[in-house]
UniProtKB/TrEMBL annotation:
Pfam family, one: Peptidase_C101
Protein name per its UniProtKB record: Uncharacterized protein
Localization: Cytoplasm
GO cellular component terms given for this protein: cytoplasm
Organism, as annotated: Sousa chinensis
Lineage: superkingdom: Eukaryota
Length: 95
């Protein structure tokens, strides 16, 4: 009984050892590939996030003066200047 358990343990251990020696290269290669892929996608994600942040900042600066509230303020300040001015158009507006 005890010798039989020992032989099964020995056979199982040897089989696992042989399988590990045969597959160790493949496992190492697969893990290396997985780590490399994860590193690549992490760097890509950081790069795209940085570019997107810069692009959003550019668009906000570019179109900031086209906001409707600022356009209304600009229109009101323009009308105030024209109303107080001494141009023929301002005199016509006051009549």
């Amino acid at each position: 009984g005890n010798d039989q358990v020992h032989s099964w343990t020995l056979v199982t251990s040897q089989a696992l050892d042989t399988a590990w020696r045969v597959g160790k290269g493949s496992v190492t290669l697969a893990v290396s590939f997985l780590v490399g892929t994860l590193y690549y996608f992490r760097r890509l994600h950081l790069y795209l996030g940085h570019r997107l942040k810069r692009w959003i900042g550019y668009l906000q600066r570019r179109f900031k003066r086209n906001l409707s509230v600022e356009a209304e303020v600009d229109l009101l300040s323009y009308c105030a200047r024209e109303w107080k001015g001494e141009t023929p158009h301002a005199k016509l507006m006051r009549k």
